[in-house]
Known about the structure:
Blueprint: H1 23-49, H2 51-81, H3 86-90
Helix pairs in contact: 1-2
Amino acid sequence: xEQDTEVIAxxxxxxxxxxxxxxxxxxxxxxxxxxGTGLVGLPFAFRIAGWVAGMLGVAIAGISTYYCMLLLVxxxxxxxxxxxxxxxxxxxxxxxx
Length: 97
């Protein structure tokens, strides 16, 4: 028995693209998905929490995000002088660029 090995494209998606996304396109997709999700969910969060608690929550989230970014930048500066760091562990492909 011979099996038919034809590739069948899905009617709604069409054929799959042969090229891959660049690093810049991938970064753009990640930013759009994270920012878009936050913007869609933020009004509902303010409705449930109220104005004061909602603004306090956004401020706490912003400060903690800023602090985590500072930790990553600090660790990046340490990774120049030290052979291994947490940044190298997670981002070893791009840390040598």
